[in-house]
Write a structure and sequence with these properties.
The complex is a heterodimer of chains A (114) and B (111).
Chain A (H helix, E strand, L loop, with lengths): L3 E4 L2 E4 L5 E7 L5 E7 L5 E9 L2 E4 L7 E2 L9 E3 L8 E11 L2 E6 L3 E5 L1
Parallel strand pairs in A: 2-11
Antiparallel strand pairs in A: 1-3, 3-8, 4-5, 4-9, 5-6, 7-8, 9-10, 9-11
Chain B lengths: L3 E3 L2 E5 L4 E7 L6 E7 L5 E8 L4 E4 L2 E6 L4 E6 L8 E8 L6 E3 L3 E6 L1
Classes of the chains: A mainly beta (114), B mainly beta (111).
Chain lengths: 114, 111
């Protein structure tokens, strides 16, 4: 069962709309991540956070923004959606297990911008 | 920079073994990971291996690591139709908490 929740699972919106993708985890993890997964399956890190009030941009340039006001909550916002933002967005958090830093993923939010 | 490469597709018959290969570039990676993604879902951790190990076995899964060649493989014994999914190899960039994922290998198991 999922300990990291993403909503909405699917969203179809028009160009220019503002959207927020929600991500919550109940595991108390400090580190959280947003990945964008393109149709070719590859994952690209777009944002990450080491803890409350700490956010960094990832390797792939993104027009989205994130916030981390509470440990369990890491929402991603697009101020003005465009068709190029159509993608699958995956949220994850991580913890150390037997010395390895292990990611736990949400089920994803599939965004389509018309 | 860091890069992780995988072949895109693999097709096997039910009951056969599957071997998914991965090459990586960051020789300082401490851990290497295998994740599985089923249709419409996020990624699920399958297993990981510490860089000072050559092999790790976990039930039907065997991970082999050749650190000299920077080559990682995942063997699934007695592959079942439920194993059909996309498999991602990943390394954690040294000194950071950022992960580099491969392109994913789509495994199709034929009945």
């Amino acid at each position: 069962e999922a300990d990291i929740y993403q909503t909405p699972r699917y969203l179809v919106i028009g160009t220019g709309k503002k959207i927020t993708l929600e991500c919550s985890q109940t595991m108390g993890h400090d580190k959280m991540y947003w990945y964008q997964q393109d149709p070719g399956m590859e994952l690209h890190l777009i944002h990450y956070s080491y803890g409350v009030n700490s956010t960094e941009k990832g390797d792939l340039s993104s027009e989205s923004t994130v916030s981390r006001i509470r440990t369990e909550h890491f929402p991603l916002t697009l101020e003005s959606a465009r068709p190029s933002h159509t993608s699958q967005y995956l949220c994850a958090s991580s913890e150390v297990v037997s010395g390895a830093n292990v990611l736990t993923f949400g089920a994803g939010s599939r965004l389509t911008v018309l | 920079g860091e890069d992780v490469e995988q072949s895109l597709f693999l097709s096997v018959r039910e009951g056969d073994s599957s071997v998914i290969n991965c090459t990586y570039t960051d020789s300082s990676s401490t851990y290497l990971y295998w994740y599985k993604q089923e249709p419409g879902a996020g990624l699920q951790l399958l297993t990981y291996i510490f860089s000072n190990m050559d092999m790790k076995q976990d039930q039907r899964l065997t991970v082999l690591l050749n650190k000299k060649d920077k080559h990682l493989s995942l063997r699934i014994a007695d592959t079942q139709t439920g194993d059909s999914a996309i498999y991602f190899c990943a390394e954690r960039a040294s000194g950071t908490y950022k992960y580099i994922f491969g392109t994913g290998t789509r495994l199709k198991v034929l009945a």
